[in-house]
Write a structure and sequence with these properties.
single chain, hpI Integrase, Chain A, 5 strands, Tyrosine-type recombinase/integrase, about 5% strand, globular, Integrase_catalytic, DNA-binding, mainly alpha, two-stranded antiparallel ribbon, 13 helices
Length: about 325
């Protein structure tokens, strides 16, 4: 108590089930993320830990649970599901430590590690389209060509671009305000904050402004810009199967997903000279570090161009410099 690190044992008598309700209620996340947390609680975490007190959780038991985790039907859970559920329990117990309910997280080693969690699968390699390929795919998308081009040149996420309203577009200054997004939660389409809960602006390429202007004619300020033929919000699965899948085949490009358009926007931006901070702001990443982690290869290629330009400048300066040293020194320098 004198050191200030004493925790009342009585506080740890709250069960994992009771704490999970308080923990989930206090999270500031998107409806989709909250739905995922709630689903893992009901199907994987609470069936094992519902009545266990926080101060009775043991590392050995957590390891055994992760290793033998089964779903609602008794089938072994996938590595991804086991990792996600285990990591969620760790986060819940971290929050209990912050709340002063328990002194340390029993799901971590003394060194603070969770090496027993299955390793995350390597992300699929990114698919990048060239300008010509992007234009070809857009041409094959018919009336949704502008939709595809806007995604391919701004990197807007599916939920962000489908939630755009007329009021969000300022063609006078060529800006789009991104402050909300669609998400599918439990079979229902909801409108909420963007993935990072941040409001940002992206620049509309000049050649797209006229197309957007035509789409907004005779629309109210709160009307969606991109909708299905019956006027309802676009559905990702339907669009991918009925429009995009046919378009990339007809355009003669490799298999394409809508998210590949976001990767393409990053690639085209870097190829045009954008730095890390500019790409981060355009894509709405939480940090520049995340942008670098995701697109490190693009910036590696960019550094080669930078090095070539630096070399050209150096050679040009050397060619125009006036020798001020003796002949032997100049000869040695050139060698």
């Amino acid at each position: 108590m004198k050191r200030g690190d004493w925790t009342d044992p009585a506080l740890g008598k709250i069960t994992v089930g009771e704490w999970s309700k308080l923990w989930l209620a206090g999270l500031e996340v998107t409806p989709k993320t909250r739905h995922g947390y709630d689903e893992r609680l009901r199907s994987l975490i609470l069936p094992r830990w519902q009545d266990t007190r926080l101060n009775a959780v043991m590392l050995s038991e957590v390891k055994a649970w992760v290793a033998t985790m089964a779903g609602a039907r008794g089938r072994s859970a996938s590595d991804t599901r086991r990792r996600d559920a285990g990591a969620q329990l760790v986060r819940m117990l971290d929050a209990a430590v912050d709340e002063g309910l328990i002194r340390s997280n029993p799901a971590k080693t003394k060194a603070g590690k969770t090496t027993y969690l299955p390793r995350a699968k390597k992300a699929k390699s990114h698919r990048y389209l060239s300008d010509n390929e992007l234009l070809a795919v857009a041409d094959e998308c018919g009336s949704y060509g502008s939709f595809v081009l806007l995604a391919g040149y701004t990197g807007l996420r599916w939920g962000e671009i489908t939630a755009l309203r007329v009021r969000d577009v300022n063609l006078l200054h060529g800006r789009i305000t991104v402050e909300r997004a669609h998400s599918m939660v439990g079979g229902r389409l909801l409108v909420g904050d963007t993935k990072t809960h941040e409001r940002r602006q992206v620049v509309v390429p000049g050649f797209l402004r006229e197309d957007l202007s035509r789409l907004m004619v005779d629309r109210d300020r709160d009307d969606l810009i991109f909708v299905s033929p019956d006027g309802s919000p676009l559905d990702n699965r339907n669009f991918s199967q009925r429009v995009l899948a046919k378009a990339w085949v007809r355009a003669g490009v490799e298999r394409l997903t809508f998210h590949d358009l976001r990767h393409t926007a990053a690639s085209l931006a870097v190829a045009s000279g954008a730095n890390v901070m500019a790409v981060q702001r355009m894509l709405g990443h939480a940090s520049a570090a995340m942008t670098l982690d995701t697109y490190a290869g693009l910036f590696d290629d960019h550094l080669v161009d930078v090095a070539d330009r630096m070399s050209e400048r150096a050679m040009s300066s050397r060619a125009h410099s006036v020798p001020t040293r003796g002949t032997e020194q100049v000869t040695a320098l050139r060698a």
